[in-house]
Write a structure and sequence with these properties.
The protein is α/β, with parallel strands linked by helices. It is built from 20 helices and ten strands. The N and C termini lie far apart (62 Å).
């Protein structure tokens, strides 16, 4: 016969095992989105639950599907068909977006694929963990494809992004504009997609399918017709321009779709360039129609080492440094940069991570550049504000540069924490997450959260 002590122990054990970790951390009326599978996701969900009330969680939560009987806006954005893929897309690509339905591809994030970008859901969770509120200002000094700016806009948070690449600025602004671009002209462009395709083919240039061979553009001053502040804009030759492209924002939006299709045509000859363009423009139209709302951010061309911002002017900073030891961003974007009239060779001499001749010199210049950039972050961030960095390390490549075994390499996250400390940016928390798809290059990246003293 069991003793009283044994009975009490059995009841305690049963009580402990009857609850999951999630039930212990999250109030029962708050339901997480499906398929949370990593520790960092549960941690960010816990921080959201601690920092946001029910109303804010419904409006801006990243990891919650429902609060009480109310579905969250994130769940509604991601449910159904968040990103319309062309019918000829590979089963691998389709399964990726199905498995990551709540992590990426929703809103305008799925427009124009960009290597090295971070998951939008994670960015939203980090913004919440940083304590930013609607009306605050977020800075991304190395915005790339604009993930942080788009998330901030969807959350009612003001945003400013900088990047030295003119194409990154153009791409990000196009994604932001898609939140409010007029829909009727986009649908009209779809109806006259053949003439739109021929117009851009003649005025911008095209790629040979399945190769990196680029045709020379007819128009030399391409950048001027895509520049929002350009005087005398006429969107190219008025005589040949399809009527649907009369609006500047529509023109740039459809132009981004065309450049996206050129990239696909370079990589694959499975579909004709026109079929690629038509399928991608359909996807762009679908995305803009579904997500049409909220605020816009400012995407600027500029140097993160010299920000044109006042001291203590932003409430939070979130960025991912370039994975320049693994990815040559300028080579990836060379077609688009060329047709924006950019001197790629000159830009290479100024880009963080690409400066220098030898790998050793590149790494030393990278550290110096990141120190300068972090100094600007400390200067522009309000006291008590958070600066979050999403960064990984290519241990194999870096070990050859510094001359130590891969398992002894000091991670870029550690380098940045050490550079930030003398500037008054102190480490508060560091989360790790697995990287899918490039395990041979980088297995793990870190979410480094710093706070200005």
């Amino acid at each position: 016969m069991a003793t009283d002590i044994e009975l009490r122990q059995a009841i305690t054990l049963r009580d402990i095992l009857s609850r999951s970790v999630t039930e212990a951390l999250i109030p029962p009326h708050r339901e997480l989105v499906p398929d949370l599978s990593e520790v960092y996701e549960l941690e960010l969900a816990f921080y959201e639950s601690q920092l946001l009330d029910d109303e804010a969680l419904i409006r801006n939560g990243a990891y919650f599907a429902k609060v009480g009987d109310t579905l969250t806006r994130h769940f509604l954005m991601c449910s159904g068909e968040p990103l319309r893929l062309p019918q000829h897309s590979s089963s691998r690509l389709k399964s990726f977006f199905t498995a990551n339905q709540f992590r990426t591809g929703y809103a305008t994030h799925g427009l124009f694929p960009y290597r090295g970008k971070f998951h939008p859901q994670m960015v939203k969770g980090i913004i919440n963990a940083m304590g930013l509120q609607p009306g605050d200002t977020l800075l991304d000094p190395m915005m790339g494809s604009g993930t942080a700016l788009i998330e901030a806009s969807l959350m009612g948070i003001k945003s400013i992004g900088y990047d030295m690449s003119p194409f990154c600025r153009f791409m990000t602004q196009g994604k932001l504009d898609a939140l409010k671009v007029p829909l009727d002209p986009i649908r009209a462009a779809l109806q006259e997609s053949r003439s739109v395709f021929e117009f851009f083919k003649n005025s911008v240039g095209h790629a040979e399918p399945g190769s990196k061979t680029r045709a020379r553009p007819i128009q030399d001053d391409f950048f001027s017709i895509s520049e929002p502040s350009s005087p005398g804009y006429d969107g190219g030759s008025a005589g040949s321009r399809p009527p649907s492209l009369d609006s500047r924002h529509v023109y740039n939006f459809v132009l981004l779709a065309y450049l996206d299709s050129v990239g696909y045509s370079e990589r694959s000859a499975r579909k004709s360039p026109f079929d690629q363009f038509r399928a991608i423009l359909e996807r762009y139209s679908f995305v803009a129609t579904k997500i049409q709302h909220v605020l816009a951010g400012r995407a600027l061309e500029g140097d993160a080492r010299r920000l044109d911002l006042p001291d203590s002017s932003v409430h939070g900073i979130l960025f991912s440094p370039p994975y320049s030891f693994a990815i040559d961003y300028l080579e990836n974007d060379s077609f688009h940069l060329k047709h924006l009239g950019v001197d790629v060779a000159a830009l290479r001499q100024t880009m963080i991570g690409l400066r220098g001749s030898s790998p050793q010199e590149k790494f030393e210049l990278y550290k110096a550049d990141m120190a300068a950039m972090l100094s600007e972050c400390a200067r522009t961030l309000k006291p008590g504000g958070m600066c979050s960095i999403v960064v990984g390390t290519n241990n194999n490549q870096l070990s050859k540069i510094v001359g130590v075994p891969p398992d002894e390499v000091e991670g870029i996250d550690q380098v940045l924490v050490a550079l930030a400390a003398p500037l008054g940016l102190n480490l508060v928390r560091k989360l790790s997450r697995r990287i899918a798809g490039i395990a041979n290059t980088m297995r793990t990246e870190f979410i480094v959260m710093l706070q200005r003293a």
